[in-house]
Each structure stands twice: as C-alpha cells, then as structure tokens.
Design goal:
Shape: elongated
Largest sheet: none
Distance between the termini: 45 Å
Number of strands: 0
Helix content: 40-55%
Structural class: mainly alpha
Order of helices and strands: HHHHH
Number of domains: 1
Amino acid sequence: MVRDLARAEKINEAYLCRVLRLTLLSPRISETILSGRLPDGVELANLLKPFPVDWAKQEEAFLAPDPIRN
C-alpha cells in the first residue's frame, strides 16, 4: 500500500513513511501547527524525526518552552 502510494505520487517510500507518521501527532500539536504558533526552532525537519507516540511526551518535546530563552 505505501509502496503503491509512493509510486503514484512519485516520491520516495521512506520519505512517505516519515510524512505519514505526522498523522500520529497529538491534536494540540496539529492545532498549533495549523494556527502557525509552533515555538521557534520547531520545523518540519524536527517533526520528521522519530518522536514518541504518547501525546503528552510529544507536547513536552515540541511545545515546551525553551529554557534557554526563558
């Protein structure tokens, strides 16, 4: 299925798998992304790296304030 989708979209299968993982992000993170309010330094490259499935841990990793800036 993933192979077929990657082929149909003419994209790399590994990249598609990383992008599909974004569907596992917590609703709060998704809402933050859609509203354009992600903290500085959090970019697509960060979100494409492995992240915890647990929503609370995701939010801690991606939405927690940066202690250096506070």
